[in-house]
UniProtKB/TrEMBL annotation, chain A:
<dbReference type="InterPro" id="IPR048540">
    <property type="entry name" value="Rrn7_cyclin_N"/>
</dbReference>
<dbReference type="Pfam" id="PF11781">
    <property type="entry name" value="Zn_ribbon_RRN7"/>
</dbReference>
<keyword id="KW-0479">Metal-binding</keyword>
<keyword id="KW-0238">DNA-binding</keyword>
<keyword id="KW-0862">Zinc</keyword>
<dbReference type="InterPro" id="IPR048538">
    <property type="entry name" value="Rrn7_cyclin_C"/>
</dbReference>
<dbReference type="Pfam" id="PF20645">
    <property type="entry name" value="Rrn7_cyclin_C"/>
</dbReference>
<dbReference type="GO" id="GO:0005668">
    <property type="term" value="C:RNA polymerase transcription factor SL1 complex"/>
</dbReference>
<feature type="domain" description="Rrn7/TAF1B N-terminal cyclin">
    <location>
        <begin position="74"/>
        <end position="241"/>
    </location>
</feature>
TrEMBL record, chain B:
<dbReference type="GO" id="GO:0006360">
    <property type="term" value="P:transcription by RNA polymerase I"/>
</dbReference>
<dbReference type="GO" id="GO:0000120">
    <property type="term" value="C:RNA polymerase I transcription regulator complex"/>
</dbReference>
<dbReference type="InterPro" id="IPR052669">
    <property type="entry name" value="SL1/TIF-IB_Component"/>
</dbReference>
<dbReference type="InterPro" id="IPR039495">
    <property type="entry name" value="TAF1A"/>
</dbReference>
<dbReference type="Pfam" id="PF14929">
    <property type="entry name" value="TAF1_subA"/>
</dbReference>
<protein>
    <submittedName>
        <fullName>TAF1A polymerase</fullName>
    </submittedName>
</protein>
Length: 574, 412
């Protein structure tokens, strides 16, 4: 598609690729001298590329595979991920326009494609690396042997140096270090210069595109879909075409053996946005899903809390200005504003509201609950008052069940796939034998597992906990009233609770120690810990991150009082 | 508990193992199988740094599950074992051996023998030398099965000879098994270890063919060579052999003496005591008293009427002769604080009387002498016995009453 020149013979623009990598005109079969200089992304994405097959060439030649570059691999991954997201309901624009363009921009900025660079450079660079045994030439660049002996996915068959010593170059541009052309170069690049592409970064790309389109999927949801298998990530390389042989160092790049981490994906996304020089993202207004008002509504429902609490979350959001467009919208490269984690922020708002109304000091909330219980017993008209105790019991029970299921899922997680991975052709047979044995054993013991067959992955759903109002056992608290904890003062509804305790009096410097505050379970009330735990489960994120946001919100909310106190303290000291 | 939301391969498999462990401990074989199915992909990673790698884990866990699972068959089990043999060459012989044990437990002697023979012929470079110990064990067990076959042939032969037949073929087979068994068994018992079954079988073979010298040597080595771990059974076997050979009381006693030192509660202590009492030497009588007292220190002997009768007899004899009361005093000294509650409580008096009259008789005698006629045990039992108008209890009462002063001298 990028090659838009008109054919010299027939003036048509209808190009294909020969086996030799040259462009030929499909209309008149005129073969040009132009070889593939630039990575032609069409090679993968455009399945209509045809090749002239020279009759004498047999199929076995193809067994050796084709030349492919690492970024082509990542492109495939992104494509698969985008397709999956489309299947989940994301608009097709994401795949066809947004993600595509982000990716192309990235390739250009990182000088991997869409730029002037002779094809020979990669090869030259590679042979330079190999010939330089003098490590001092670039002390920061790890030697190939060193890279080979380290293994992210530890203990893969034959990662030791015996493999390294058995390397031999098959052709000028491919070596047995990797199936791809530039696998080894990729890993050896100085990673501080540019953002080298990694598997977690593919999710950063996806999230960035989703954010640009303001799709109703939060980062925590995206990562959950990844873990649940609805978005390809683990073993996505099994969808690479046959010709793209994956081996050696490619594995280190494409094989994932850990779940993606929220923080990592989040931070990389912001780095990426800045790297690509993206402009201000589309505005996040109060009608967007990602706006705290909307997300709070969703999380309140999922946490089985009364709808009435929404008024309060909106009030808090408004008071501290976190619902403002400028606060919420991403401005890449702006280092002064704190990066917004929409999901964590909304959860933290709810926690703060709960603290405002119920105090959550392990005493007051139970007291209020008792009053509500009394009232509910004696007075059944006008709907029930919300009882914290009942809510706690119901939610805890469900949470425990779900947590137990999740724990078992973690233990039962399958990391490998059909496609066997080998570092070199040498240990291919060993790997295949092992794979066969694994399959046999899985079959043998699978039969003995009884009727518990490994269930098909559950349908993707936005809600992990759901509560039905049709249940007559009163286990749904959405319609419950907050009257029991509110009082009227001067025409305004305020909380009966007059107190509030701050999670922390002083915030840490996030840049120095990575957190705004340090959360230790034993230092806080059990109720607070429970509430954090609930949202921690829903968002699949450590409680400490929610705690950080809570601290941030509290400091904004009680800013004036804190400021006064500080001033007072300094005055006293004088 | 804070739940990590990160997960990597290693953590996931560690968690999987702990679920398997729980399931195994609770005998939930289906659940264990379910998790093992998820664990097996660990085989595709090499954990050479770990102490116990996935292949060993899978072998051990899989064996347990297949052995106990209701839907698992021997065929499946064997198939699994064959797979496990290919997994780790460093463990090959160990897996073979354990497979053989399972086959034997299942009564599949022939299959076990085949497997042993196959394993015996295995050679794998330097591994053969490294797995030397396992190889010796395999040869030994093969020898054991040869012994078993020899034994069968021997019985057939004996049957036929009774009927008047002489069967040359059977005899020859028998001898051939003997040769094979003897060679292997002899080898293994050279190595310091606990080889009870091999020793027994080997001695049996030697005795049958009349090589008593060799048998004696083997048993002596087994019992007295300090390189071998202390093993009470070695002394038992030696004693039994000496008895069979009609050896002198002296040698029998010396064999049992060591057994008494190692295992004072051994069942042969009654024989030992009897033998010692019959001896003409005074020292032996003292030893006999020590032996029987020591045996009765153990809970397993509490209701052993024979043991009590041995003690009673000796006590009675000493008291009657009024010689060596200091022996009783010495033995009683370390026991007087706890034997009363241990053996001579009123509760036990009642129970013994109800369940075993002879036992109560013997015990009452001992109690009466050691604790005096006013002790609970003696009073109750003698009273019951006299009530039941049993002559011997009346005699007992008289005896104890007559010798009551002895008690005072003992307890002082």
């Amino acid at each position: 598609r990028d090659f838009n020149e008109r054919c010299a013979q027939c003036s048509e623009v209808n190009w294909g690729l020969t086996d030799g990598g040259r462009f030929y005109c499909r209309s008149c079969h005129n073969v040009t001298e132009k070889t593939r200089e630039v990575v032609n992304t069409d090679f993968i994405t455009n399945s209509r590329v045809q090749t002239i097959s020279k009759g004498s060439r047999k199929q076995e030649k193809n067994d050796a595979g084709c030349e492919w570059y690492i970024c082509e691999g990542f492109q495939l991954v992104l494509k698969k991920q985008a397709e999956a997201l489309e299947a989940l309901g994301v608009c097709p624009q994401m795949k066809d326009e947004i993600l595509c363009n982000f990716w192309r921009c990235y390739l250009q900025k990182s000088k991997q494609a869409y730029c002037k660079r002779p094809a020979g450079e990669t090869v030259k660079a590679l042979s330079e690396c190999e010939s330089s045994t003098d490590v001092d030439s670039d002390p920061e660049r790890p030697s190939l042997l060193h890279l080979l002996s380290l293994s992210e996915s530890e203990g893969d068959l034959q990662t030791d140096c015996s493999f390294a010593s058995s390397v031999s170059k098959v052709s000028d541009s491919t070596s047995v270090y990797s199936g791809s052309v530039d696998g080894s170069l990729y890993l050896m690049k100085n990673q501080k210069e540019k953002l080298t592409m990694t598997m977690p970064m593919t999710l950063s790309f996806c999230y960035m595109a989703l954010l640009w389109l303001r799709e109703p999927i939060t980062l925590s949801e995206l990562l959950r879909f990844v873990v649940e298998g609805h978005v390809p990530y683990l073993n996505v390389f099994q969808h690479f075409p046959e010709k793209m042989k994956l081996c050696g160092l490619d594995l280190r790049i494409f094989c994932v053996e850990s779940w993606p981490v929220y923080e990592e994906v989040f931070n990389k996304m912001h780095e990426l946005a800045a790297f690509l020089d993206l402009p201000r993202f589309p505005d996040i207004t109060d009608s967007c899903f990602l706006h705290p008002d909307m997300l709070c509504m969703k999380y309140l429902m999922e946490a089985n809390l009364p709808d009435e609490l929404h008024n309060w979350t909106c009030r808090v959001v408004k008071k501290i200005g976190i619902g403002e467009v400028d606060f919420l919208t991403l401005m890449p490269g702006n280092k002064s504003t704190r990066k917004v984690k929409y999901d964590v922020l909304a959860a933290a708002v709810i926690v703060v509201v709960l603290k405002l109304l119920f105090l959550l000091d392990d005493h007051y909330e139970w007291l209020l609950s008792e009053f509500a219980e009394e009232r509910n017993k004696n007075n059944t008209e006008g709907g029930p008052y919300f009882e914290f105790k009942k809510w706690y019991e119901v939610v805890k029970q469900s949470l425990d069940v779900e947590q137990k299921k999740l724990d078992e899922e973690r233990a039962k997680y399958l990391w490998r796939c059909e496609k066997p991975l080998f570092y070199s052709v040498k240990n291919k047979s060993k790997v295949l034998k092992r794979r066969q044995m694994v399959v046999n054993l899985q079959s043998q013991f699978g039969k003995l597992s009884g009727s518990v067959r490994r269930a098909e992955k559950p349908n993707p759903s936005s809600f992990q906990l759901s509560w039905s109002e049709e249940n007559t056992d009163g286990s749904c608290f959405h319609r419950h009233s907050l009257k029991g904890v509110l009082q009227e003062k001067c025409g305004l509804l305020t909380a009966m609770n007059p107190d509030y305790w701050l999670c922390t009096v002083k915030l840490c410097n996030e840049k120095l120690c990575g957190h705004l505050a340090h959360y230790r379970e034993v230092e806080f009330p059990q109720s607070y810990h429970f509430v954090l735990g609930l949202f921690s489960f829903l968002l699949r994120i450590q409680p400490s991150y929610i705690h950080d946001e809570v601290c941030m919100i509290e400091h904004k909310l009680f800013n004036k009082k804190l400021y006064k106190k500080l001033k007072y303290n300094t005055v006293l000291r004088k | 508990s804070s739940h990590e939301h990160k997960l990597n391969f290693r953590q996931s498999k560690e968690a999987c193992l702990s679920y398997i462990q729980d399931a195994l401990l609770q005998k939930q074989w289906k659940r264990a199988a379910e998790f093992l199915t998820c664990y097996v992909e660990s085989l595709e990673k090499d954990y050479s740094r770990e102490q116990i790698g996935p292949s060993e884990m899978i072998w051990r866990i899989g064996t347990e599950i297949l052995w106990h699972h209701s839907q698992s068959s021997m065929k499946e089990f064997n198939c699994f074992m064959e797979q496990m043999k290919t997994l780790g060459v460093k463990r090959y012989l160990k897996v073979c051996l354990e497979h053989v044990f399972h086959l034997l437990c299942n009564g599949q002697i022939d299959e076990a023998y085949q497997n042993l023979s196959l394993a015996e012929s295995w050679r794998f470079g330097e591994q053969t030398a490294i797995q030397d110990k396992e190889m010796k064990l395999i040869e030994a067990y093969r020898g054991l099965l040869d012994y078993y076959s020899w034994s069968k042939q021997k019985n057939i032969l004996l049957e036929h000879s009774e009927d008047g037949f002489s069967d040359l073929a059977v005899e020859q087979e028998m001898h051939s098994y003997f040769r094979k068994a003897a060679v292997s068994l002899k080898e293994i018992i050279k190595i310091p270890g606990v080889w009870d079954i091999f020793v027994k079988c080997y001695v049996d073979l030697l005795e049958f063919y009349g090589d008593h010298n060799e048998a004696r040597q083997v048993l002596n080595e087994y019992a007295y060579n300090s390189k071998f771990p202390a093993n009470p059974n070695a002394h038992v076997y030696l004693y039994q052999f000496l008895k069979r050979q009609g050896e002198s009381k002296k040698s029998l006693i010396s064999a049992l003496k060591i057994l008494h030192d190692i295992v004072p509660s051994h069942e042969l202590m009654i024989d030992f005591n009897t033998m010692l009492q019959k001896s003409k030497k005074r020292k032996k009588h003292l030893l006999g008293l020590e032996v029987i007292f020591a045996a009765l220190d153990y809970a397993g002997w509490k209701e052993n009427a024979k043991a009590w009768s041995c003690l009673a007899r000796q006590v009675k004899q000493i008291v009657t002769s009024e010689k060596h009361l200091d022996w009783i005093k010495q033995e009683w000294n370390s026991r007087k604080d706890w034997w009363p509650a241990f053996h001579f409580s009123r509760f036990l008096a009642k129970r013994n009387w109800q369940e075993n009259e002879s036992l109560s008789y013997e015990k009452a005698l001992v109690a009466g002498i050691l604790l005096g006629k006013d002790c609970k045990y003696f009073k109750y039992v003698s009273h019951q016995g006299c009530k039941a108008q049993l002559k011997r209890f009346r005699m007992l009462k008289k005896f104890v009453n007559r010798h009551n002063p002895v008690y005072l001298r003992i307890s002082g």
